[in-house]
Structure formats: C-alpha cells, structure tokens
Design brief:
The structure holds two protein chains of two kinds. By secondary structure, chain A is an all-alpha fold. Chain A has one domain (about 40-285): MetI-like (MetI-like fold, Orthogonal Bundle), CATH 1.10.3720.10. Chain A is built from twelve helices and no strands. Chain A has helices at about 10-40, 50-55, 60-90, 95-110, 115-125, 130-140, 155-175, 180-190, 195-220, 225-230, 240-250, 255-285. Chain A starts with 7 loop residues before the first helix and ends with a helix. Chain B is an alpha+beta fold. Chain B folds into two domains: about 5-235, 3-Layer(aba) Sandwich (Rossmann fold), CATH 3.40.50.300; about 235-350, OB fold (Dihydrolipoamide Acetyltransferase, E2P) (Beta Barrel), CATH 2.40.50.140. Chain B contains eight helices and 19 strands. In chain B, the strands form four sheets. In chain B, strands 6-7-8-3-9-10 form a six-stranded mixed beta sheet, with helices on both faces. The two termini of chain B are about 35 Å apart. The chains are: A mainly alpha, B alpha+beta. The interface of A and B includes residues 183, 186, 191 and 285 of A.
C-alpha cells in the first residue's frame, strides 16, 4: 500500500522552491555552454566549420593545454599531500583543539583567496623586491640569484598552492573525522600495528576521498585565469590565457579557436567532475 | 589470584574522575561472564582495560598466568566484538575475517581454510564475497564475531554486541553467541545494560553501578538474592513499599494498618523504617493466610505471556505480573482487589 499522495498544490510549491536554481543554471551555465559550443563551430565568416577543432592540434594549443595540465597536476598532488597531512595533524595528530578551529577558519578564507589580490600579495612578498625576498637576502639567501622567480612555472605553482592546500584541508577534515575509532581498535585488537592499520584499512578507506579531492584541486587550478594573468601577464602559455588572447587579444584574434579551446577545457573539467562524483560516492558509502 | 583471567585491584580515573573503583574478579577458563549495569557504570571501561585500549590507574590484569596490565592491545591475543560491528568497509566478508590472520602472516591456504570454517560456524558460507554494506545488521555482527574468533583468541570480549539490532534478531543472535561460545569453550566477557541478555547468557553476572561492583553471582542468585537495593531494582522489576520493623526475630513488619511477615533476615531493630521488596511475579490477586493487602486496580497491560497489573495500595503502588492462562480472569481498572505474597518471597532493605 503506498502512502497518501501529496496534494498537487504542495507538489507545485516544492518545484517553485527550486525554480531560482533552474533559472540561474539555465541563464549562467547551460545557455553560455550552448552558445560556446555553437561559436566554437563558427568560422571567421560566420559559416559552420570544424576548422577550430582541427586547430586544437597545433603546437601552440597543445603547449597551452600541456602547461595547464602540468601545473594543475603539480599543484593538485603537492597541495593534496600537504593538505592531507595538515588535516591529519589537526584531526588525529593530537594537536590542541584551538589549532584546528584556527586552521579551519584560515582555510575557509585562503581557499577563496585568488585572482589579482592573491597575485599582488605574492608579488609584494616574493617578487623581485618583495618583503620576503629582501628578508632572505638579509640572511644570505638570494632567491632570484638562485634561479627562483615568482613569474615562472614553480612561482605560479607556489601561488596556486596558497588556495589548493586550504581547499584540501577543508575537504579532507570531514573525511578523516569519518574514520571510526572502532576500526583502529578492531585492527589493533586483531594484532595489527599502527602501520598495518593505515596501510590496509585507513588509507584504502580514505583513498577515494584523497583522489577525489585531488581531482577537485586539479579542476580548481585548471580553470584559474585571473591569478595567472595578473601574475605572469601571459608569460606562461596556459589554456585559460590562450582563450583570452584569442577572443579579446589584438595580435592572436581568432574567437572561434578561443571557443574551441574553451570547449576542450569544458570536456576536461566535465571528465574531472564525473571522476570526482564516482570517487565521492564510494567515499560517502564507506565514511558516511 | 587463580582465574584464567584475573583482575586484581583494578581502578581507572580520567582526569581525577573515578570511572572504575577497586575491581577484583577471577574468570575461569570457558566461563561466560557478563558485566551488567546502566550507562556510565564503568563496565565498558573495565572491558577496554582488559582489551588493552585503556591502562588502569592501579591494579593488575593477568591472562593465562601472564601479567598483561601494560601489554599493547595487539600483543594480547584477545578477540573483541564491538557494538558498531567495526567491520572494515573496504574489505569483503572473507577479507574481514582473514584480517587478523593476514597481519599475523598466516599462510594462505591455512588462512582460507580458517575463513571457510568460520563462515560455516556463523552460517554465512555464501557471503564470503559480500561487502559489509550489503549485509543486514545481524549478519554484520556475526561476521564481526567470526573475525574476532579467527585469530583463536585466548579470551573473547563482546561490548554490547546486540544493542543496535531489532528485538527478534537480537534474540536469535543471543542464542547463536551462546551456542558458539559453548562449542568453542572460549572464555568470554560480555558487556550489556540489558539484564535479560545478561541473565540468559551468563554463567556469572557482575552487576556494576557508579564504577563499583555491586554483586557477582550466578543469574539465579543475582535475581533471587540481590545483595543491594541497586541490584534488586536494576535486575528485573521490583516492588518497594515503606515498612516499619516490629519484631526482627520473627520477621514481623508493619505496612500502615497491615501486619506482614518475611522469612528473610531483618538486620534492624524494632521501630526502624525499611523498604519491603518483592518481585511482581510473586504477587497473586487473591487472599491467603498471610501478607494480604487491599488495593484498587489502576491499569492492566497485556504483554503477551504475562499480564501486568498496577495496583494502588495504602502506602504506594504495586505491580503484579500474572501468567497469561486461557482461564485467567482479567481485572479491570477501578476494581477493588486483594493482593497477597508469601513470606518467603519478600525481603527488607534499608
């Protein structure tokens, strides 16, 4: 026997509640995606063509994708590992409780700190005449003399890590909290050492969360534009910067190619989201 | 200290707060002992000290003649079943059971033979490849039991293993635990707050309250001869009425206008105020030669095999449990009734 059906008006009310979400998604996600897809198929004369997609195999575009993927992977892996150990330290490492709330608050702010202000902050601290650069010089360490520059691949990676590490901390903390004390005690009771417990139980259980969050970090860095642009001004060939140059640049103006590069990014981001969702589902089943 | 498991002078404090007071217990090989008490009485803390998850503030724990007071949990060879099952979610049932054998580096074929043997023991041979989230609560707890037994432990500890299960599954699994324990003749400590569970399963019961042992004894003794007021009221239903001692030598007491008698010893002088206690199943709704009271029926509750009747008497309320026979004439709320209980079925306490 089924339960009583809700009156039609109540059901209508529920749909009305989610209407703003659908409107927002339609206007700012679906419509732009459709326009983007259409424009990526437009030639300079307005006719439909696949030339823009053929141009994705040129060296310039491949180099841009390659650089974006490399920098995203680098910061996802390094940020993921550092973030994981930080989250572990405050969740299970026995650090004082106030330290955890302090780190959580900082992470909440830092994970959203990006774009021009972040680039400026790093230029002021680690730029050629930045405060930290000067301090290092005072103690005899010449950062720029040693080959480091904030405007390079590793410089940009460092800047990205500023928001990647806190994001990892924020996502991993609940996952680490989800590890049941009973699992550790059961393993110990069965004769396992702490190392065996981590290798056979805790890490396999956390792995979907760790990988899922690293994919999230990858997407986070892959789509970043303003930070990279403000810091390097286009010195590094990134996919996001290439799109800007093709759509609104004076020299490399080919909007159709820009839209096709953007479609490629949409595809990579979509793939990341699918992978993240799969891993997240598994993680929720084990840690939920 | 002669038991297979011997707890001597065990005490545990958390930040100066006493969780377990001087606890002494000897458990014989193959014995099934339950720690029974309300939440916060120290029963789980005591169990965790035996398991090695907590260290006693004072006292010693000996297992099979060896002092294990400060031994690590993974060096004690004790199997434990947790209330939350604590199965590893990333492993199949077979891998969960084999976990302890694997970390002990037991050889592959011996390991899989042992897993099959245990799957048969818990009647789940077809679930070897299932994951814990594909099993019911009862099945998960059976797997947890098999996992704890796989390592051939010297001692089995069960921490409220049935409290998260439905009543019917709980009853089935209770019988299953006792069957397996008897079959393997494994020394077992069982923690529960459910007195029925403790009485049904145990060779001996340790009743605990506020970190102290109130009484240790066989289930029959605990129920019929409770040593303290706490044991009397915590184990089973209990009626309590205020009485005055009239003649301690003859067991005569007074309840308002009624003169009553008990055959149990009264350790108080004449005139002392005490509580008269009796179990609900000892009360009958008829008159007898002795210990007859008059009262008014307040409620009648049908509980299947018994009918629980609450009666208001002069000095308070009584509960009578009547065996549900086909010929039983049920009283109704508001009826006047006579109540009696034999002198050997009641006792007095402060």
């Amino acid at each position: 026997m089924g339960g009583a059906r809700r009156p039609p008006l109540a059901r209508f009310g529920s749909w009305l509640g989610v209407l703003p979400f659908f409107l927002f998604s339609g206007m700012f996600l679906i419509a732009p995606a459709v326009i983007l897809a259409y424009r990526s198929l437009e030639g300079p004369d307005g006719t439909l063509t696949l030339d823009n997609y053929r141009a994705l195999t040129t060296n310039t575009v491949i180099a841009a994708y390659s650089m974006s993927i490399r920098i995203s992977l680098t910061t996802a892996v390094i940020g993921g590992l550092i973030g994981f150990f930080l989250a572990w330290a405050v969740s299970m490492g026995g650090l004082p409780r106030p330290f955890r709330s302090g780190l959580t608050t900082f992470s909440g702010v830092a994970s959203n700190f990006a774009g021009v202000p972040l680039a400026a902050a790093f230029i002021f601290t680690l730029g050629r005449v930045g405060v930290l650069t000067a301090l290092f010089e005072l103690i005899g360490v010449d950062l720029y003399g040693g080959g480091f520059t904030i405007y390079s691949y590793w410089g940009l990676s460092l800047v990205y890590l500023f928001f990647q590490i806190p994001l990892m901390v924020l996502v991993m903390l609940p996952a680490l909290d989800g590890l049941k004390q009973d699992w550790r005690e059961a393993a110990e009771n069965l004769g396992a050492t702490p190392g065996q417990y981590w290798r056979r139980v805790a890490l396999p259980v956390l792995l979907p969360s760790i990988l899922g969050t690293m994919i999230l970090l990858f997407g986070n860095a892959f789509g970043a534009h303003a930070t990279a642009y403000a810091l390097t001004g286009g010195l590094l060939p990134l996919a996001t910067l290439l799109i800007g140059q093709q759509i609104s640049g004076d020299v490399l103006n080919n909007p159709g190619l820009g839209y096709a590069v953007a479609m490629g990014m949409v595809f990579i981001m979509g793939l990341s989201i699918v992978l993240y969702s799969i891993l997240q589902r598994r993680s929720e089943r084990w840690l939920g | 200290m002669s038991g297979f498991l011997s707890l001597h002078g065990i005490r545990k404090e958390f930040d100066g707060v006493v969780a377990v007071e001087t606890f002494d217990l000897d458990v014989e090989p193959g014995e099934f002992v339950s720690f029974l008490g309300p939440s916060g009485c120290g029963k789980t803390t005591t169990l965790r000290m035996v398991a090695g998850f907590e260290q006693p503030t004072a006292g010693t724990i000996r297992l099979a003649g060896k002092d294990v007071t400060y031994a690590k949990a993974n060096e004690r060879n004790i199997g434990m079943v947790f209330q939350s099952y604590a199965l590893f979610p990333n492993m199949t049932v077979a891998d969960n059971i084999a976990f302890g054998l694997r970390v002990r580096k037991e050889e592959g074929s011996a390991r899989s033979d042992r897993v099959s043997e245990l799957l048969d023991l818990i009647h789940l041979p077809d679930k070897a490849k299932s994951y814990p989230n594909e099993l019911s609560g009862g099945q998960q707890q059976r797997v947890a039991l098999a996992r704890a037994l796989a390592i051939r432990p010297q001692l089995l500890l069960l921490d409220e293993p049935l409290s998260a299960l439905d009543a019917k599954i709980r009853d089935d699994l209770r019988a299953e635990i006792r069957r397996i324990q008897r079959q393997l003749n494994i020394t077992t400590i069982y923690v529960t707050h459910d007195q029925e569970e403790a009485l049904a399963l145990s060779d001996r019961v340790v009743v605990m309250s506020k970190g102290r042992m109130e009484q240790v004894g066989e289930p029959f003794e605990i129920y019929n001869n409770p040593a303290t007021g706490f044991v009397a009221s915590f184990v089973g239903q209990l009626n309590r009425l205020p009485v005055t001692v009239e003649d301690p030598a003859l067991g005569r007491i007074r309840l308002g206008r009624y003169e009553l008698r008990t055959t149990s010893m009264i350790e108080a002088p004449a005139g002392a105020g005490l509580s008269l206690m009796m179990r609900p199943e000892e009360i009958t709704l008829d008159d007898a030669e002795e210990n007859v009271l008059e009262g008014i029926v307040e409620t009648v509750t049908f509980l299947g095999s018994i009918v629980r009747v609450q009666i208001a008497v002069e000095e308070g309320k009584l509960i009578a449990d009547l065996f549900n026979e086909r010929l039983l004439e049920l009283p109704e709320a508001g009826d006047s009734t006579q109540i009696s209980f034999p002198p050997h079925a009641c006792w007095v306490m402060a």
